[in-house]
Write a structure and sequence with these properties.
Oligomer: homodimer
Strand order of the largest sheet of chain A: 6-5-4-9-8-7
Radius of gyration of chain A: 20 Å
Shape of chain A: globular
Distance between the termini of chain A: 35 Å
Amino acid sequence: MTAADQDRNISSSFAKGLAVLAVFDAETPSMTLAEIARRSGQDRATARRGALTLVQAGYLRQDGRMLSLTPRVLALAGGFLQANQFGRRVQPVLNRHARQMQIEVTLAMLDQGRVLLLAQSTVEHGHVTYGFTAGSHIPLAHTSLGRMLLAGLPEEEAAAGLAETDLPRHTEASLTDPAAILDRVGEARAQGYCLTDSEFEAGITGYAVPVSRPGQTPIVAGCSAPRGQQPEADAERLLRGLQLCAAELRQAEAVDHL
Amino acid sequence: MTAADQDRNISSSFAKGLAVLAVFDAETPSMTLAEIARRSGQDRATARRGALTLVQAGYLRQDGRMLSLTPRVLALAGGFLQANQFGRRVQPVLNRHARQMQIEVTLAMLDQGRVLLLAQSTVEHGHVTYGFTAGSHIPLAHTSLGRMLLAGLPEEEAAAGLAETDLPRHTEASLTDPAAILDRVGEARAQGYCLTDSEFEAGITGYAVPVSRPGQTPIVAGCSAPRGQQPEADAERLLRGLQLCAAELRQAEAVDHL
DNA sequence: TTGACAGCGTTCGCAAAGCGAACATTGTTG
DNA sequence: CAACAATGTTCGCTTTGCGAACGCTGTCAA
């Protein structure tokens, strides 16, 4: 009861339960109650009630002492995707450009100090590396998508956003100095696109361009490919393709109210 | 406290909050508090607390008096998709077969008396009609996917499942007699595939085959296309393609523990 | 073998969280 | 503009759910 008193309008039990649902991510597909409690920073008994409630609601499956998400959570995302007509207005555009560029195209935004993938084109010869999908989180600091997103924020917010995340060394090439990363972000802001090389995955170059209009919540499109023989030619071709894709998404006002 | 006493292990506030989150679907992208309360069958004050909590947690956005889902809900689905390696084990297979068949391929399962789309390939020339995505719900009774799913259940369960849903007449061809629909389901079970014609969308034929092994929770793959000049030839080609796709998914054990 | 221990899931009395009738506020109709 | 209808918000009473405490199970060292 200090300064931040509990708001009578907020249901704390509900908030805690949501935290339980949110701890399930790529690294930990199934967990015990104690693990959930630890990850969500809650008492074991509290986590237990939340988990059991989720089981009853059908969002969680209990298998012995392990708990894991059920496909029903997809329905929650489905509500969002349909509300924003992703199936009609976003996915076809991504697919078409992906086809023309012969590369997988991803749409992303910021979420809690990470990059949240909103949609992904699907094309045959995609060099599948991690197998990210819509809803996946990827790092902010060492990906072209992340830096382009930061570039869409006012400078001080970008610095703040970067400060919130930790900076693991994914590869030898990963920049670890926040100032150096902010330099690259500034560069991306100035030139209207972002390139990264080998900072997240060795040998892979990332490309990203903004989709949202200045002032809106930043949305970006990007792609990644193994570094080829003529990096400059590749970059020019792919960035041109991404710019066309981004322009078309803007035109369709597909991402204006995110 | 009559017979159905409240379980001490279940957090009712949390369950009610989840119900609020779940009312957002394709038909109602944004709602007022009163509408949410009505749809979730809760008191307005209760719905309000749930909604405000969701706003604070970042899953809902408040815009005047309208509330709508934010992209963060995608992260919940992302947890499931990554846990089950959809990006690596399912999506590529669907994409490859879709490419070969030159048609959009969908993976689906049962959820609350409807068909829940789990994943969807995307090809260029897809005749985009509704713009469904992963997480979308489609009707159970009048789609080939739905009937094939019912065929994967024991007969009495299929009948029960069908009884739960209402049977709107989407088109003139929609079967409205439950017994007639169960006949088709039985047929699908017997022959190992399901065809429907114009029952959901006029002029569109749907094709579906089972993916899950007998006894598991039913999972099916399917596709749909405008009825062409040689329906039999189309059916043979598409069903063959779907069977190959389904076999490969089974082989990869991609959907065994759903 | 056994005692001590660490980690897990589960219980229960008490504090506080949230339910919903009642109220305030805003839009709508005759 | 008065009467109404529908929405958003408050507050006292009750129910819910918090977390210390418990029992159980597997693990390690003496």
